[in-house]
Amino acid sequence: MNLINNLEFYLVFSSILFVLGLLAALTRRNAIGIFMGVELMLNAAGLNFVAFQSFRKNIGGGDWLHGHVFSLFIIILAAIEAAVALAIVLRIFAAKRNIDPYAATELRG
Amino acid sequence: MSAYFVQSAVGKRLPRMGDWVSIGAIFTSFLLALRIFIAMWTAYDPNWSVSQSWTWIDLSSPTFGPFKLEVGVHLDNLAAIMLLMVTLCSTLIHLFASGYMRDHDGAPADGYRYASFFSFLSLFTSAMLGLIISDNLFTLFMCWELMGLCSYLLIGFYRDKVSAANASLKAFMTTRVGDLGLFIALLAIYWAVAAVRPEGGSFRFADVYAAIGAGAFNGQLFGLSAAFIIGLMLFCGTVGKSAQFPLQVWLPDAMEGPTPVSALIHAATMVAAGVYLIIRMFPLLEAGHVLVVVAYVGALTSFFAAILAIKQTDIKKVLAYSTLSQLGYMVLAVGVGAYTASFMHLITHAVFKACLFLSSGAVIYAMHHIQDMREMGGLRKKLPITFVAMLVATMAISGVPGLSGFVSKDMLLVSSLAYGYYMHPQHILIPILGFATAAMTAFYMFRLIFMTFFGEPHDHHHYEEAHEVPWYMWTPLVILAGLSFSFVFSGSLSGGLIGKADYILGEANNWFTHLVVPPVIEGVAAHGGEHGLAHWEHVAHGPGMILSVILAMGGILFSFLVFGSKVISADKLERIWPRFVQKAIDNLYYFDWFYIKVLIQKGLMPLGVKMAKFDDFAIDRVLVDGTKDVTMVVQRAAGVTDDVVVDGVLVDGVGGGIPNAIGASLRSLQNGRVQRYVLVAVAAISVIFLLIGVL
What we know:
By secondary structure, chain A is an all-alpha fold. Helices cover 73% and strands 0% of the residues of chain A. Helices cover 72% and strands 3% of the residues of chain B.
């Protein structure tokens, strides 16, 4: 029952989330779905940071809150990136009327 | 030799068809020979010699040992005398030929071929001279073969006559058979010499003599000594070239050639080359005890040829058989060991035989090319100079004292008597044949004289037209006849029995016998042979000389009785002999029949045809079927391999499939889908992390 009190739990958990997000990003046929996966990956990484920060005292460290701060950065960046990504998707849709990534293969070859 | 090249190239266009080129060249050679002779005379030493040799081919190698072919020039007494004789006779014959080969008006008889005739004469003479001066067997053999070629060209000079063409081929082929033996002997000699000489084998006479002394030829083969076999093979060359039994068949037919050719080749020079060879190689023959065989061959040839000569009707054929007979004498002399006598007879015979042939040529020319003696007669009034010259030469050949032939023949017969009666009585046949031949020689030669020059002319038309030949034709005759007197050779008119004419040259009278002696070899005991022979020669000299004179005179007298005064009938004489003897003589002892009908037509030609068929068979099978099969198999294999390899390369993918696969797999990476790219990137990163973790 020491599961929740171990760092490993949160690392594994964030890894699982990351992999799930990766899977989602790689296999979805919807541009927004891909973006959802990316969001998931980012947040999993942020969770990783927070986990490390939370267990800093047990491991050994100081008073600084690097992890928490960095996770804030991640959220902000995620938001910005979402805006940009959605703008791109809107442009693509306007050009192609289709947001299937398989249809956007002009860079092929 | 340069005359040959000049003459054959431009002779046709030179004035007088260029005969003066050849004549000038040979005369120059004569002057040179004269100078050499004088050098020899002033030295007056049996061992005088001048020699020079060069290395022609040098193929020495560490694996096979030394192998050098050294050729060069060697002039000694023998060569000097012979050179003089050959050049003199050749010059005179060239001069004679310039007249003979023309019509009576002076136009060349055969058009442009007059020039080539002289070119051949020059080539031939150069070969003969080369043979004489060579110091080794190899160049001797080269010149030997060259003379064979020239003999072929010259005998067959009248190309349009079938008989001439056949005769020239016969001459060449028959001598070739003998040359085979000579060639084998040459090879054997080279290796025998190589066995005892640290520098390797050699063909030079000096080296061969030394090798004989060193015992190089003492090996055994099938129980016969090596020297015997080699000597025998060497003698084969002489048998062929000098027309001894059994290869004598070509010489009578060789009379198809123009008379100057007969004079040069078949009297003075080429046939003498065979005798020259055995004289040079005398030490080898002596060491091998071949000389007995040589003597018998010579005696038999001499005797049987003389018999045939008695019955001939063509003037040149008589002379041909007499040449055979005299050559037999020379060979016989070498066989009994009379080195000097043989050589002297060679020289004297060359002179008087050339004289005889040229005189007969003059007769033929005067009679507009009639050669049958039965149509001649009484010509001595019409051709006086020719008659005298021919008479002198005939006396020489018959052995009348006072002429050169007597001296040499006498020496020869005395030696044969010494050998066959005193020294080795079991060989009594040799002198018997020799003396019998002498009698017959006188008989048939004077028969020729009587039939041609005496009596009533049988062909009146030609007789009326006959006149003496021009100066350039009788001059050679006179010169040669003059040289047929005996004082040229031994300073006495009677060979020493009656008195010596010392006042001419003093001590140098016996110059010939003094200067020409067989080479002495260290290491070879003188077999008692030489000493024994010399001793018995003294003993036999008296009886031998008396006998030969009696026989010669008897022969002449008998001939006069039969042909001159016709007291005894020739026909009756002929009928004494049994039928088969007559027929045998008429058919030339069936030699030609045997050689041509039996040996060639029934034996060698079918063999040749069979061999040709076999050869064709082998060639056809090998070339056509074999090579074809092999080629086809190879080609099919190549095709299949090609297909497999090429197709395999293409199909199997070494060059095609693999890149295809790789390409296909790689291509899929670039399908334009972003997600694929990201997947690849993630996979790569995870691999890197793994590796970093592992390492």
